[in-house]
Design a protein that fits this description.
By secondary structure, the chain is α+β, with helices and mostly antiparallel strands. Helices cover 46% and strands 18% of the residues. The strands form five sheets. Strands 1-2-3-4-7-5-6 form a seven-stranded antiparallel sheet. A five-stranded parallel sheet has the order 9-14-17-8-18, sandwiched between helices. Strands 10-13 form a two-stranded antiparallel sheet. β3 (103-108) and β4 (112-120) form a beta hairpin. Mean pLDDT is 77; it is low at 1-6, 70-84, 142-166, 168-183 and 188-205.
Length: 547
């Protein structure tokens, strides 16, 4: 077998899949008895560990409906007729031996690991029958509306679950009869006025799976924390389907509503292009383009002159990227004294038992990555003023890892370090800062750059949206003055931005803003030609504004 990188903390190894492959080729009880201890080490004990940790991560509300039977972990299922060897764990509602209804399952085979929802087809029949007989009851209608209408809470869930496929399996041939988005299936069941003819179930179809499947090479690239988090998050996200396949009661809608309350705590609020556009004034098409770039490159720098809203935009893009998932965002600010020891790892003196010790302490980025490793969804680190530190010195070997999330380096501590694949970095860079020269070409090619310039539409949009009371005619004159200033500056890196004037009390504050923020900036820029800025002093500006 081709050599595959095995994460040092991965519960499975090449031995796991090699053993299952050998068993696949010799599926006899004698083979299992001969290799029983090896199966315990490489298959059954890792399964026990994973499921015990998944149970720990699930909220009590969900665990109350799942039967965790430790003695069932790692049980061997040999399917006769169809050549398939797999270890399966089934977590059902009530009695785990009741295989007719929906179950959470974790299945490991010679070439893949699968986890999600499994059910006999009779569960789907029962849901259809319930729809036909109970659709007039108020409680059932409440549940149906969650799936039928573009309900905001459900859309948050839908964004992450739509990629899960359901498979109707042919029990005779082991092949898929059909496969499409599970929500296409739910739409057919819940959103049509009558049960469609094409939903009649033929006798040969007996299984439905709503699951995530990872190839063995993918599994070997996951750490234990990453794999456990991914399984737990999958169970959390498809829990409403688990209820639908198991409970057929009038209070089912109440349970699903309880789940959505839990969902808001477990997952970040979904954020949409339209919301970012409303807050920032940028077009949704432009925001979509930036998001695509960040997802593709996984690191980007928003650059522009002062006052263009770089940090604000970075925070809103981060909110979108983590929206609907279990990821998180954090922000740090670089400065000239920021070092590799602060960012990656370094020796820090600490007092212990009356003496000093000098342990090797992880920096902000290592701590961030450690937390991100335990999450399934995107985590975003915002580095504000990224160019104000000596980046080559601060990033160190991180420069090598930015190119490829599969790469690994050995840190000074001897620790093997890889940037988790769910980590994105968004930096902000003030192009008026002379330290921009410290950003060398090696770093530039590893980041995508999102340029921002003064956007006067954003200024208009802000005062219109918030109804600040600043007169439109005066606002138009202010925009004209800002344009004149930027023409006089004649350098896109030093243009005067509009964020100085994004305040709801602009009418009362404009003189203070101009004299205490705008004039000092212009004085520094025109230090060798102060006469040039005379026309932009407040005494002249207030007349142009009509004060």
């Amino acid at each position: 077998m081709e050599k595959v990188f095995v994460h040092p903390e991965c519960p499975f190894s090449e031995n796991t899949f090699n053993l299952l492959t050998d068993f696949y080729e010799d599926p006899r009880s004698d083979f299992y008895r001969t290799h029983k201890q090896v199966f315990f080490k490489y298959v059954e004990n890792p399964l026990k560990y994973i499921l015990s940790q998944v149970e720990y991560l699930l909220p009590d509300f969900i665990k109350n409906y799942i039967n965790f039977r430790i003695d069932q972990f790692g049980s061997l299922l040999l399917f006769q007729g169809v050549p398939s060897i797999s270890y399966s764990v089934a977590l059902g509602l009530g009695d785990i031996n009741s295989l007719d209804y929906g179950q959470f399952m974790l299945n490991i085979e010679p070439e893949k690991v699968t986890f999600g929802l499994y059910s006999k087809i009779k569960s789907l029949k029962n849901i259809i029958n319930n729809y036909s007989s109970q659709c007039r009851s108020d409680s059932w209608k409440t549940l149906l509306e969650l799936y039928k209408l573009p309900h905001q809470t459900f859309c948050e869930l839908n964004r992450h679950v739509h990629s899960y496929n359901y498979v109707i399996e042919d029990s005779r041939f082991g092949k898929s009869e059909n496969s499409l988005s599970v929500f296409s299936l739910l739409e057919e069941i819940f959103c049509w006025q009558e049960i469609p003819k094409n939903l009649l179930i033929t006798p040969k179809v007996n299984n439905i799976k709503v699951a995530v499947s990872l190839e063995s090479s993918e599994v070997l690239g996951y750490s234990a924390k990453q794999l456990i988090a991914k399984i737990a998050q999958t169970f959390k996200k498809i829990f409403p389907l688990f209820l639908l396949f198991n409970l057929y009661e009038n209070d089912l809608s109440v349970l699903v509503n309880e789940y959505f309350l839990l969902y808001k705590k477990e997952f970040n609020q979904a954020y949409h292009f339209e919301e970012i556009s409303e807050l920032t004034g940028f077009q949704t098409s432009e925001i979509n383009r930036w998001i695509r770039t960040i997802n593709r490159k996984q690191q980007a720098i928003i650059q522009g002159p002062p006052g263009t809203g770089k940090t604000f935009l970075a925070q809103k893009l981060a909110q979108y990227l983590i929206g609907g998932g279990d990821g998180f965002s954090d922000i740090i600010q670089f400065h000239p004294a920021y070092t590799y020891e602060d960012f990656i790892q370094g020796i820090r003196p600490q007092s212990q038992d009356g003496g000093l010790t000098y342990p090797l302490v992880p920096g902000r980025f290592l701590e961030f990555c450690k937390q991100a490793e335990a999450r399934e969804d995107t985590c975003v680190l915002i580095i504000d003023e990224i160019n104000r530190a000596n980046l080559s010195q601060v990033f160190g070997e991180l420069m090598y890892l930015l190119d490829d999330r599969d790469r690994t380096v050995k840190l000074a501590s001897g620790q093997q370090f890889t940037i988790p694949k769910n980590v994105c970095i968004i930096g902000t860079m003030n192009t008026a800062d002379r330290s921009i020269a410290l950003v060398d070409n090696a770093l530039r090619r590893r980041f995508a750059f999102i340029p921002l310039s003064p956007n006067y539409k954003v200024l208009r949009h802000y005062h219109k949206t918030w109804q600040t009371g600043f007169p439109i005619a005066r606002l138009n004159r202010l925009i004209g003055i800002l344009k004149d200033i930027n023409v006089a500056i004649n350098n896109k890196h030093y243009e005067l931005g509009i964020s100085f004037f994004l305040t709801k009390t602009l009418a009362e504050d404009i003189q203070d803003i101009w004299q205490m923020e705008i004039e000092p900036y212009l004085e520094e820029y025109f230090f060798d030609n102060l006469e040039k800025m005379d026309e932009f002093l407040w005494d002249n500006i207030k007349t142009k504004l009509g004060y």
